[in-house]
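Inverse folding, one chain.
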């Protein structure tokens, strides 16, 4: 019996030792396996780093999207303002076009009125030019010489001239103004005249407007009177009036005091 118990006990002890050895082996295997896996802190740190990185990317994308949206909204607002401005300009242009059409119609009517008026004036201005040309032929030579350039603007053929009615009227008015100015003055000039004996000599001529003219030589021996005829200005020798005409000239030149001097006058 004692020996049996001992064997039993030994068997049991041996079994226990096997269990302990197995447990130790399992513990060693588990420890080795745990040694091969990352530590929980390192894994958590890696996860947090990935989470922070993801949040940063999400935040940047959100900011970029917000900025892009603001830029797009501003662009849309700018385009809308440009559209409104263009619509306003189109409306103003349409209104101006309408106003221009109205003005164009008014100007066309005014132009037609002026054309009709010009047609009615073409006849009278041609008559004025003809009478002015005839008047120039009756003027004394100093005045004709003064009007020479301006008188060249009188058309030879009024129906074929390129001058406007306004230019033709101004020419006639300019000529008549000069004639009227000469008419209101007493003019003293030096001229070369053909004397009664057929010779030519330098004389002093006096024009009392366009009514009368006188000339006398320096020695007072040859003299004459002038006046306008229906065709030309005509000089007539009158040597007997030489002293009187010479005295008139000296008075006009302030070489003698003023006085009444009888001179021949021809009234037409």
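Residues assigned per position:
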């Amino acid at each position: 019996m004692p020996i049996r118990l001992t064997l039993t006990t030994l068997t049991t002890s041996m079994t226990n030792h096997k269990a302990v050895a197995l447990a130790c082996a399992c513990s060693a295997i588990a420890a080795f396996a745990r040694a091969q896996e990352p530590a929980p802190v390192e894994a958590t740190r890696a996860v947090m780093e990935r989470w922070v990185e993801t949040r940063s990317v999400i935040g940047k994308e959100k900011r970029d999207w917000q900025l892009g949206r603001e830029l797009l909204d501003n662009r849309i607002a700018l385009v809308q303002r440009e559209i409104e401005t263009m619509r306003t300009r189109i409306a103003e242009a349409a209104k101006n076009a309408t106003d221009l059409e109205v003005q164009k119609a008014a100007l066309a009517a005014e132009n037609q009125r002026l054309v009709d008026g010009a047609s009615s004036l073409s006849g009278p201005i041609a008559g004025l030019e003809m009478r002015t040309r005839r008047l120039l032929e009756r003027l004394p030579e100093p005045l004709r010489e003064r009007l020479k350039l301006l008188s060249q603007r009188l058309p030879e053929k009024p129906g074929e001239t390129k001058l406007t009615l306004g230019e033709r009227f101004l020419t006639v008015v300019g000529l008549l103004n000069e004639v009227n100015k000469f008419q209101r003055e007493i003019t003293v000039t030096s001229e070369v005249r053909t004397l009664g004996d057929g010779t030519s000599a330098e004389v002093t001529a006096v024009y009392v407007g366009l009514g009368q003219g006188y000339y006398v030589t320096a020695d007072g021996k040859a003299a004459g009177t002038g006046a306008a005829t229906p065709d030309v200005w005509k000089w007539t020798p009158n040597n007997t009036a030489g002293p009187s005409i010479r005295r008139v000239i000296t008075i006009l030149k302030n070489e003698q005091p003023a006085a009444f001097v009888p001179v021949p006058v021809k009234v037409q």
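The first helix runs from residue 2 to 36. The beta strands are 186-194, 200-208, 212-216, 223-228, 233-237.
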